[in-house]
Structure formats: C-alpha cells, structure tokens
C-alpha cells in the first residue's frame, strides 16, 4: 500500500488510501498548477461553485473562447470528412501559442468558407449551364417535331373546312413556348395538372434524358425530362410559370433560329470548359488547405481540449479576491502527495510567482472515492466487478479472486480443450495486434471482445485445463497420458457391451479415463461426478465470500459483525452444505454406496433414526444432530443480538457515556465502522431490526438457493459436452460415411459452422453470463457492499476524441 522511492506497490485487495486536500494557489501560477496536475492525473477536484451557473463563474469568457476554437476545429473535421481526408496522427506538443492558434484558426475558417462559397457559386453556375446545354440539344428536336405536328394538324383541319380550329392551332405555335427540365418522377403529374389548369389549351412535348443530372438548387443527382410547352395567351403563360415553380422545374430560354441555337450551344460549351478548369483549381486549392490543416489537426484539437478542461477546472475553484489566490479542494491518493507537491513547486517556479502554493490535508468524515491501480490485464476483471457496483472505500475487492475464479467457473461449463484452443487462438490475435487495434475504430461486438481479450485468454487457458480433465477434444476422448486402465474380459470383446470392462492396468493418471466415453454408464457417471463437483465448488466459493466478510469487519474494527454475522453465517452454511460436501468427499474416498439424498433428507425429518447402510463414518448420527442444532441456533444468533447491540452503542455514544478525544480513534474518520459513524440523529430501532430480519431470511434461504444455483455448472457442462458429441457423431462422422467428396465437404462445412456458431460463440456467451451471475449473486452478496464511487482524477490522458 505504502509508497516508496520506486512508487507505490499495486494492491488490488484494498483501494488506495485517499486524503481530502486543500490547495491554496496564487492566481499568477493557477493556470500552470492545474496544467501540471492534469499531466500528473492523480487529483480529483471538488466543485466549490456548484451553486453558480456556468455564466457566473470566473473563467466563463475563456471557456467561451475555447468553445469557439473547438467549433472551428469541428468545422474543419466535417470538411475533411466530406473531402475523404482524415487527420494525420501526430505527436502531441504544447509548443503552439494559443493566441496565435486562435488567430490562425479564424483565418483558416474564413479562407475555407470563402473557398466553399466560391465553389458553390461556380458549381451552381456549372450545373445550370449543363442543364441549359441539354435543353438546347433536346428542345431543338422537340421544337421541330411539334412544329411539324401542328402544321399537319392545320392542313388536316383546313381540308375539313374547320378554319376556326386551324386558326387556333396556328395561334398556338405563333404565341410562344416555355422550355426547361422537370424531375422524371414528377413529369406525369406535371403534364396532368398542366392540361387541367389550361383546359387543354397547351401542347406539351417531353424527352427523357439518359443520364441523371445534378440539380442546381439541391446539388443532388436527379433523373429529369426535357420539356417544351407551347401556349397561347398571357393567362396560359402565367399559369405555366406558376406550375413550373410549384414542381421545381428549371426553365431555360430557347431560340427558334437554328443558327442562334448552334451559336448559344457553342458559347455554353466554352463557358462550361472554363468553369470546369476553375472548379478543378478551386477544389485542388481546398484539398491542399485541408491537408495542411490535417497535419496539425490532432495537435490543435488536443491543445484546445486541454485549454478548455483547464479553465473548466479553474471554474471549480473558489476565488479569494483579497488574498489574490484560488482555493481548491479535492481527493488524491496518499502515495501521490510528493508528486503533487513537486508539481506545485514546479508551477510556482515556471510562473515566477513570489508565493508558493499551499498543500493542506483536511480531516473529513465524507466517504472518499475508490481507486484501484490496475493494468491492462487486471482492468477488465475490475470492470466486471464495477459493473455490479463500485467497491466501498477500502472494502475487500472481489476482482482479486475473480481473476482466477471467473475463468475457472467458465471453464467448468466450457470444458473442451479443442474449443479452448480455438478460443485461445482468437484472443491471441487481439493480444498480439493490440497496439494497432487499439488505435482503430472497431464495431460494437468486436470492441467488446477486444476490451476483454485478457479475460477471454484466461477463460481459454482454463478451458484447456478442464477439457484435459474431462478428456474431450471436440467431444473425442484421447489417450494423451497413457493407455486406459480398462480392457475387455477376453480377446473377442463379445461381452464388452453387456458384462462391461475390467480393470487391467493402473488408474488413468490425469483426468477422465477415455473408456468412459461411449459406454452405457458414461452419462450416469458424468452426471454424478459433475453434480457433486458443482456442489463442492459452490460451497467452497460461498465460504470464501463469508471469510472475506470477516476480514472486512476486522479491517473496519466492527466486532459486532464478526461475532453476530460472520460466526453464525459460517456455522449455518457449513452445518448443512459444508457437511454435504464432507459426505461427498468421504463417499469418493471410501467407495461407499450410501445414498446422500436419503442422508440429508432424514437428517431433518428423522435425525434420531439409525442410518443403517447410509452410515459413512463412526459417530455420524450424533454428529448430524449436533450440526442440525448448530444450524438452528445460528438463525436467532444472526437475528436478535445485532440490533440491540447497535442501539446500546448508539445510546452510549450520544448520551455522554463514551466521550473521547477527537484524535484518539485508532481509525481514520473515513474508515470508521459503519456502526459508530452515524450522524447525531434518532436511532430507528424498528428499521434496524427489520433490516436485520430481511438480511437473516435472505441468508438462510440464500444458502439453499445459492447452493442449488451452482448446479448450473453441471447442467451447462453436460449440455456443452452433448452438443459437441451430437455435432461430431451426427454431422461429421455421418458425412464421412459417404464416399462422395461433395457429401464430405458439406458435412465438414456444416460441422465447422455449427462448432463456431453454436459452441464457440453462443455457448461461450452463455457460460460467460452464468459465471457472471455466480460471481455477482452467489459470491459477492456474502461480503460485498458495492456502494462506493469511482475516483475520477483530472487528467489530460482521459481527453477522448469526442469530448468537448
């Protein structure tokens, strides 16, 4: 726990000792002080201005300035993303002056906005001219087709002496026309409404464009039709213009004279070529500018975030105007005292301040934050525990045991060393490429697997170990440690399936004998073994949890919890299920045929009856009665004394019967026992008694349900083994029975897919969740309070990419 010349030793069992510190910092060295503390990353500031709004704080103007710079950087990043560029990774440096950076960012933003504006205008003009050129090319054909159609119509009408209709048609051509483009999806509606609005007194022709064109208004590629509308009269013209606006149709002028058409097309083509060259030069200049920004973007972004975080922290400090200094309060680990004081001295020297900062440790009864020093291996296991609840300050940390017990319980359910090797190879890929992968943006599932790579590695190693014990390699038994201890009674092996095998050699040295696999008694044997093994593991882990609660109570000096919680709990659990575990071990060692179900049931129903064939050792009946009485006595032992003792302790403490000097306590205020650290408030005996009643009932019922819950180890282990056996026997071996290469290939593909999809993905997730539940509920509820809060120091290392 303690610090030394080479820094503190990492100790996960108890969180680091913390202290509440007051810093009195001169204003001239405040910025550098906060900056150096941010580099150190071991000081958590408390907000002393919580009642003030962000705009009432001292450094609101500086934060606003930093926010404006951050906005400009976000604008640059958006522009780079649109251009398909990414910021270049660069080493972080603080050599850039913030004032110069602010000016540079403003100039770059103005230049980029101007370039974008010019490019938008040029692109708009270019798109309009492109559409105009298409209209000139297509409308010429439409115009002459329509002219011929109207002329033919006029001749036909004259032949039938319908002079009036012919005159109207002639007027239709003479009066005027409008040309342009309309979106293809709107063309039918446009034609229909145009006909209705003008009562059929127009002539519309459309031509489909083969390729989509960029719309000048929206900038999106749209499939369009070129149209030309012939009309007669000013009213019809106004209606057509309004409909064009309503349908978003772009109108372009058109000349009847062919020479003028060719002349305009030539002019438009030349103008388009000029605009294309200008646009390319503008885009090249914009790309160069964005690349220049990209080289410095990471450094600028970090500096701006750093600046903003420093002033945000300064706003949490109290301003003392008369003394020209700032007052800070916060938590820090005890081992960091020298490092923080060195940082304060360095800030004083670098800012040429005449007065040094003052470091003052405060006495408090507030609960300190919880801080565990973890590395990349232990951090994932710590996160598993923290997901349930952050440890109370300096209570025993379950992650110390979780590092071993979590992968072991997983492996009990996932015992196959072939599957374990596959899992290990997958996680070794993440571990060997962790530097490269940590800097990349991974998917949600991949990111989750990568962050838990060391947990998965331990799970895979333990799975290989339990797989060797179960003697299963993709459900196939192998004689790795020598020959089987069993053999046939004769050379023909005719009675092997009826009379069974006999022991011909020494016992198989490690794990399960391979001859058990495939035998008639395989399932009953494995069921019995794994069920009893699950109970032994469960009782051992629950006992570990209760023993840890003893060390917690001893550490906090809480004798009430030792004598009236730990002792009756350990007696109750072991009087029942500890005794069951003892019977299992004795039965295994002696080879007895005793029925353990019968023994445990009649231990409660008829404790004085003779055991007969179920007796495993001398004096068992008397021992059972003694254990039963002990279990019954443990329940009121847990329930009644503690509430009365707490009440007595409270009365003595606050009625003047146990006054003491403030500094006479053997324990720091922040780790005083919970039973004596209450405020001066009324002791609610009924509330305490009900709480203790609930706790007692929960433990008594939980002792039964938690033990039964560990049987999931047996169930999932059996399910995993049977599934692997089914995939091997009914898929791979069945396919291998055919002489066809196609059938064998299909069988192999199905076997691999089923193994990966079901056994290596779904079963892994299932066993992981069950192991998680066993730790959170069955193990941690015996001792873990988990009502603390994490230590979040002010640190520049924690400035993420998305932080603002």
UniProtKB/TrEMBL annotation:
InterPro entries, A to Z: V-ATPase_116kDa_su, V-type_ATPase_116kDa_su_euka
Residue intervals passing through the bilayer: 408-432, 453-470, 533-551, 563-586, 622-640, 748-772
GO CC field: vacuolar proton-transporting V-type ATPase, V0 domain
Superkingdom classification of source: Eukaryota
UniProt feature coiled coil, ranges: 91-125
Keyword hit for DNA repair: no
Keywords: Coiled coil, Hydrogen ion transport, Ion transport, Membrane, Transmembrane, Transmembrane helix, Transport
Membrane topology (UniProt): Multi-pass membrane protein
Biological process per Gene Ontology, one example term: vacuolar acidification
Subcellular location: Membrane
GO molecular function annotations of the record: ATPase binding; proton-transporting ATPase activity, rotational mechanism
Family: Belongs to the V-ATPase 116 kDa subunit family.
Protein name: V-type proton ATPase subunit a
């Amino acid at each position: 726990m303690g610090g030394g010349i080479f820094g503190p030793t990492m100790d996960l069992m108890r969180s680091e000792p913390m202290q509440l510190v007051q810093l009195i910092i001169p204003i001239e060295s405040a910025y550098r002080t906060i900056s150096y503390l941010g580099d150190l990353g071991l000081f958590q500031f408390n907000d002393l201005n919580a009642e003030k709004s962000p705009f009432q704080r001292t450094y609101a103007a500086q934060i606003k300035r930093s926010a404006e710079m951050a906005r400009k950087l976000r604008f640059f990043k958006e522009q780079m993303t649109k251009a398909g560029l990414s910021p270049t990774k660069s080493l972080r440096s603080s050599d850039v002056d913030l004032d110069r950076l602010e000016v540079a960012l403003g100039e770059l933003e103005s230049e980029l906005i101007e370039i974008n504006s010019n490019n938008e205008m040029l692109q708009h003009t270019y798109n309009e001219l492109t559409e105009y050129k298409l209209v000139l090319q297509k409308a010429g054909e439409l115009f002459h087709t329509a002219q011929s159609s109207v002329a033919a119509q006029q001749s036909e009408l004259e032949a039938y002496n319908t002079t009036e209709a012919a005159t109207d048609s002639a007027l239709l051509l003479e009066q005027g026309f409008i040309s342009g483009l309309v979106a293809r999806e709107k063309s039918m509606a446009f034609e229909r409404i145009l006909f209705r609005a003008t009562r059929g007194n127009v002539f519309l022709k459309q031509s489909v464009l083969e390729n989509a064109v960029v719309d000048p208004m929206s900038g999106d590629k749209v499939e369009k039709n070129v149209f030309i509308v012939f009309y007669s009269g000013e009213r019809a013209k106004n209606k057509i213009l309004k409909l064009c606006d309503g349908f978003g149709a772009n109108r372009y002028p058109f000349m009847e004279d062919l020479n003028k058409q060719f002349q305009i097309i030539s002019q438009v083509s030349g103008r388009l070529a000029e605009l294309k060259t200008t646009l390319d030069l503008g885009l090249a200049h914009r790309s160069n500018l964005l690349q220049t920004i990209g080289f410095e973007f990471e450094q600028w972004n970090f500096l701006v975030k750093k600046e903003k975080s420093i002033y945000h922290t300064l706003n949490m400090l109290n301003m003392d105007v008369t003394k020209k200094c700032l007052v800070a309060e916060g938590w820090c680990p005890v081992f960091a005292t020298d490092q923080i004081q060195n940082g304060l001295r360095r800030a004083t020297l670098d800012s040429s301040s005449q007065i040094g900062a003052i470091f003052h440790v405060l006495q408090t009864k507030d609960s300190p934050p919880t801080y565990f020093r973890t590395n990349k291996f232990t951090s994932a296991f710590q996160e598993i525990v923290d997901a349930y609840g952050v440890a109370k300050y300096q209570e025993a940390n379950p992650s110390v045991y979780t590092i071993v017990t979590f992968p072991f319980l997983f492996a009990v359910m996932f015992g196959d060393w072939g599957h374990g090797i596959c899992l290990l190879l997958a996680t070794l890929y993440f571990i060997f490429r962790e530097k490269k992968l940590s800097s990349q943006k991974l998917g949600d599932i991949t990111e989750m697997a990568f962050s838990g790579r060391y947990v998965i590695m331990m799970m895979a190693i333990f799975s290989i170990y339990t797989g060797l014990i179960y003697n299963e390699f993709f459900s196939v038994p192998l004689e790795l440690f020598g020959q089987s201890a069993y053999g046939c009674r004769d050379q023909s092996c005719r009675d092997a399936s009826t009379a069974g095998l006999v022991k011909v050699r020494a016992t198989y040295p490690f794990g399960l004998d391979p001859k058990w696999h495939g035998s008639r008694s395989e399932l009953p044997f494995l069921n019995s073994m794994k069920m009893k093994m699950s109970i032994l593991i469960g009782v051992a882990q629950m006992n570990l949890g209760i023993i840890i609660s003893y060390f917690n109570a001893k550490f906090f000096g809480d004798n009430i919890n030792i004598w009236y919680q730990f002792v009756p709990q350990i007696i109750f659990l072991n009087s029942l299920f500890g005794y069951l575990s003892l019977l299992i071990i004795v039965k295994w060692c002696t080879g007895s045929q005793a029925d353990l179900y019968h023994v445990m049931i009649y231990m409660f129903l008829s404790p004085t009856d003779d055991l007969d064939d179920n007796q495993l050792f001398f004096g068992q009946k008397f021992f059972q009665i003694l254990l039963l009485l002990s279990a019954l006595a443990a329940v009121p032992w847990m329930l009644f004394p503690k509430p009365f003792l707490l009440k007595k302790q409270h009365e003595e403490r606050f009625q003047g019967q146990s006054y003491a000097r403030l500094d006479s306590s053997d324990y720091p205020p922040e780790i005083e026992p919970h039973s004596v650290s209450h405020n001066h408030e009324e002791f609610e005996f009924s509330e305490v008694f009900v709480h203790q009643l609930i706790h007692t009932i929960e433990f008594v019922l939980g002792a039964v349900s938690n033990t039964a819950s560990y049987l999931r180890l047996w169930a999932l282990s059996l399910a995993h083994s049977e599934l692997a056996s089914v995939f091997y026997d009914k898929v791979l071996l069945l396919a291998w029975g055919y002489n066809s290469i196609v059938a064998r290939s299909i069988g192999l593909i199905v076997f691999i897919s089923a193994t990966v999809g079901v056994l290596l993905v779904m079963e892994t997730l299932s066993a992981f969740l069950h192991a998680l539940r066993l730790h959170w509920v069955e193990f941690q509820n015996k001792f873990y309070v988990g009502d603390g809060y994490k230590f979040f120091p002010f640190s520049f290392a924690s400035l993420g990419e998305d932080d603002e």
